[in-house]
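Please, structure for the following, as tokens.
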Amino acid sequence: VHEAEPQGTVMFTMHVQASATSSIQTYAEDTTGISYILLGYWTSGYYIERFDQIDPNNTNGAWGGEDLSSFGVASGTVAEMIVGNWTADTQLDGGIRASTTLNRLVDIHESEGAGGGGSQGGVNGVTMLVKATSSTARVQVYAETEGANNASIDFWLTGYWGTNPTGLDYNERFSTVGGPGSASTWTDTTLSTFGVTASAIAEMLFADITADNGSVIFGVRTDGSSIDRTFNIHETEAGGWSLAKAHVKAGSDANSTVEIYTDNTADDAWRLLGFWAASNTPPNAPTLYDRLFESEKTGTSTPKIRFSVTDPDEHRLPDPVG
């Protein structure tokens, strides 16, 4: 991990499967400089950990396919990958996407100083989820400059979902989200305009985008939350973005509202990377239980209405009773 300067942090986000006793393991070369934050947890599904460095050997500045089946990833599986920049004093573009037309790439801040990969000092980058396609579990990756391992742009498979969280599927996006209008104020932000459904789990990227401006504080949390869920992201140098991301649960309202925060509205950027939502909800599905029970009564009879868990459109209206 690249150094942070002159203050702030370099942040990478990873999933980890807890043991039966809710335990995980952590490692730090320097226990003073490395810290860990629990951002949240899933109550269902099964995540399979990996840590495979991938050298795609694609053409520089072009999207190319990468098969993940040799790592155990199957077609339709949601994988978690890191795209990172090793290069000292040079910002580089890198990206990860499914076999789509989304230009899902980011301008990654330089690495610098000694260590890590030869003359480079660690790696800058960001984690993204991506859904593998085809029988070979193919994804697409992009490197402005692609070199051997530990040089230029590199990719890591950090794991994949063996079983998705119950009833959910991942929907890939790369949508620009407007930042807060006022600094140091938690601000409601609408995600429904990007297809995010009520109570979906959104994957949000945020970045410090201006060189030599000092660190910038960012935050993202569920609408109505009181958690101080903020992160101090270090400054950029010589261009590029200092990147981080976090999952956040959208509100149950029609706007799928989340709250976002920054202490610097001039130097922030926000992207929706994707979201987890019900995999069996058809487009324009009706909102269930959106009226009070009293409004459904007819005289002294009370009709019964059943909605199936597996098919929100299925309904049955039996003969009135009473």
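Residues 115-120, 282-318 have pLDDT under 50 and may be disordered. The first strand starts at residue 46 and ends at 54.
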